[in-house]
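Lab notebook, page 48
Experiment: co-folding of the full assembly
Goal: obtain a model of how the components sit together before planning crosslinking
Operator: M.T.
Materials (sequences as entered):
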Amino acid sequence: MSTANLNGAGAQFVRNAWYAAAWSDELVAGQPLGCTMLQEPVVLYRRTDGVPVALEDRCVHRSLPLSLGRVRGDVIECGYHGLQYDCAGACVRIPGQQTIPAAARVRTYPVIEQDCVIWVWMGNASKADAAKIMSFPWMTKLGWQQTKLHAHIECNYQLIIDNLLDLSHLAFVHATTVGSIELADDALVHTERSDDGVWTSRWTLNVPPAKTYAQFGRYDCNVDRWQVSDFRAPCTFVIRNGSAKAGTGAYEGGRGEQPWEFIVCHGITPETDRTTNYFWAVTHDFGADDPVGTAEFHRQSHQVIGEDIAVFTAQQRMLNLKPDAPLINIRYDGGPIQARRLIDRLIAAEHGESVPATDDAYVAA
Amino acid sequence: MSTANLNGAGAQFVRNAWYAAAWSDELVAGQPLGCTMLQEPVVLYRRTDGVPVALEDRCVHRSLPLSLGRVRGDVIECGYHGLQYDCAGACVRIPGQQTIPAAARVRTYPVIEQDCVIWVWMGNASKADAAKIMSFPWMTKLGWQQTKLHAHIECNYQLIIDNLLDLSHLAFVHATTVGSIELADDALVHTERSDDGVWTSRWTLNVPPAKTYAQFGRYDCNVDRWQVSDFRAPCTFVIRNGSAKAGTGAYEGGRGEQPWEFIVCHGITPETDRTTNYFWAVTHDFGADDPVGTAEFHRQSHQVIGEDIAVFTAQQRMLNLKPDAPLINIRYDGGPIQARRLIDRLIAAEHGESVPATDDAYVAA
Amino acid sequence: MSTANLNGAGAQFVRNAWYAAAWSDELVAGQPLGCTMLQEPVVLYRRTDGVPVALEDRCVHRSLPLSLGRVRGDVIECGYHGLQYDCAGACVRIPGQQTIPAAARVRTYPVIEQDCVIWVWMGNASKADAAKIMSFPWMTKLGWQQTKLHAHIECNYQLIIDNLLDLSHLAFVHATTVGSIELADDALVHTERSDDGVWTSRWTLNVPPAKTYAQFGRYDCNVDRWQVSDFRAPCTFVIRNGSAKAGTGAYEGGRGEQPWEFIVCHGITPETDRTTNYFWAVTHDFGADDPVGTAEFHRQSHQVIGEDIAVFTAQQRMLNLKPDAPLINIRYDGGPIQARRLIDRLIAAEHGESVPATDDAYVAA
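Observation: model returned without errors.
Model output:
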């Protein structure tokens, strides 16, 4: 991790990756949807069979975004002079003329709809592999409920990744709901890295349940609590959050007694180097019999994400003001540092550069 | 046309030209009016005899805009320390001192009020020729009505010129009022250029009238329709829009049967390279006996200009995001391309450069 | 005064100086207060004994402003991961680890609370001398009242200093309250400079009282009026404003008959080179028996400062548009020019440069 990178300067992104472009229900039949991903304008629309298409969102004639145009069957028509593009990005109609120049085409992006997410591959299409999409099965699983958000955030995407790989912050940012001081003081943290991700588990054992846990897990005793962040580079997460009665075997690998868990799915999509589209869903299989309680659990969850967003935007404003200010790392930064290293390596690999295996800037305190 | 120019980058303007600074009724006696034209601050005010004056809108003492001051007879007084400037831009009073330094003067601009427009010459005053102002006689003609707009638009001015020289866009941008698909598919287009302008006619013959035409032209049959754009470089237009019963001789040069026409006057005044003040007036001699119908015609006209403005601002946002993206030209771009070439030549001539007569970038598809 | 400096370009500030950071009542016990001074983020908070503390407002870990955290006794805790800093800027707690790296500290600033102002020294702490704080005794003096403002203004701070050292502007900017034309036309102006300030007196003798003076001074005759600006570089002012019956000895150094006076205290704190926090208080010892009249005097005072702010922001917009436009000086600019010279000298001295004693750019007309 270079300091420049940590500070969000420089618009470098991993391009050969699947990014969340929209929740499925944001892409309505017959209505184009424009978004900016990795500083590229992208338009999404559904073919008549419902399959999503992702094209460059810029008519090659006079640069009007195609997302201001109209879906006509399987093609999209520019709203200015009526040029039409098919799903392969080829211009197939220019009103008033018969010939269509070969240059009249827009870029097309591989796109897959899976787990209620429209995933777009922003890099070399020949390398797009559907198997690399992180799986969010709880979005559609029988008996599971979800509450979700699509937020446009004024921050560099890496600030969000940092956040999700150091969940000690719950003790301070979310002290009135899911946080308790033991998450910061007494956690057993274990981090592993792989070629394409970072995995961090945090256990706090025999601790009083935080407010949300006590309320919805209905504990009248101490708990063993887990937070397991599974980061798939560059921009997706599954985080398991749960607890069981203290000392009943959860930490040792069992179910434990009175287990209570929710799973959060995250898609973090850079828009520019200072703005990000954030897709977030809390999923759970409890509460089917308690709509009022579930509504309150969802409200608390949205309070939590709102508190995080306030942190991200304040950090970014400070980074804008003091882009070169030095930072220090702490013990819990192992996960965030591994993630930044991994992203740096992936970006360098796309540019044919090598990155040293170790870097003093990464050395935690 | 260079791509850089097409994309709105670079703040080069034709300076030796008359630009619309305000509608006459925007300049009220006794009240200074500040505006920015070609990135220059300009203040307008009326002398006691009503004649408009245009000066640099910046007190040479401490840079307060004079437009925040007061008109006192024929002079304008700075609202900060009371320096007064006469109509020739000379400082004629500095409170508290007798001597006035020779440098205490602001630039003055040639100004002419004509056809309800305050026209300001932004270049070399010795070249200002009132005869070069485009005539908008319908603004004041007996029996004619007008509806008008002064809009501040977040776009480069050339995007507006492009729009007005390719009226095929009505088929898509204004499909619910003045547009119909034949305007794009079946138009007979003829373009001529002169030393100071571009003239484009579009005829669509024997076509169903568009909604607005059917409603106010009261046609129960097909029509022959004309759209004639008369562009006077760098920034004024008169566009005639009308129709007559199909096959009754209008295309051949006659009046035709049941002719119906309105004439639109346009002043397009660059503020910066990304913002423009747009003066637009629809004029017509029908409807004097039908105030309710006229109000609806005016409403539809304002809907149309609002739709255009949405296109301009979306184009500009895309050009900001992708300033170097390549563009292609289509058959209908003859008029817009001639206009951009002409503006390029005029700018180059002011800078003593030559521009090649042909430029591959202009070659339409 | 270089033109660049006059135009507000270049972010150079005098650092070895006390700046107003907040009014005392803006800094509430237990609540951190963030501000930006001289482009540095600063957080203020009160210790348990009420004494104010000023630290760098940026956690060294992940750059969250500490002002979004919590005051815990005498320390401040980051709202993200709970790092705590003591009043000396040392990190004294990192949750989850025992060792604290030596680099984990934030800058601390000398701070003094005096005359209802929190003063912060932005330069070399070893040079901070409480005796250099300009005294505003009327903020707390028995029998005196105050009305005050803290405004965030979109202008370079020097525009405000210019304003306060040439009070001829009252004739034009504040013509409906404290201004009258004689302030500009017939003033006796005397300017003196010292090593750390500029002092300007303006007397207008035997003149009709301006509206505010007539109303609250209850004059039925002409007055001798004084305006005495005492500028302590770089950013504080005390301005005495008053009058007495004409010809009753005030100008000669006596009290005069029916004297009426108010004293305005100013703290002008650069935030960036284009934004300023302005602390302004009008103080007076009249009107204790007339709350309704005093409320109206305060209303007129706030009208006056609002008119000034409109001037500052309009000047700055013009300087942004035309940063290199030449300016001229007038006779009354002696005070403002001395102040700009003094600030330039102080800045240069901090950078080890010398500034010529005279500079053609300063020569007034």
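Interpretation: The CA atoms of residues 42 and 56 of chain A lie 5 Å apart.
Next step: discuss with group before ordering constructs.
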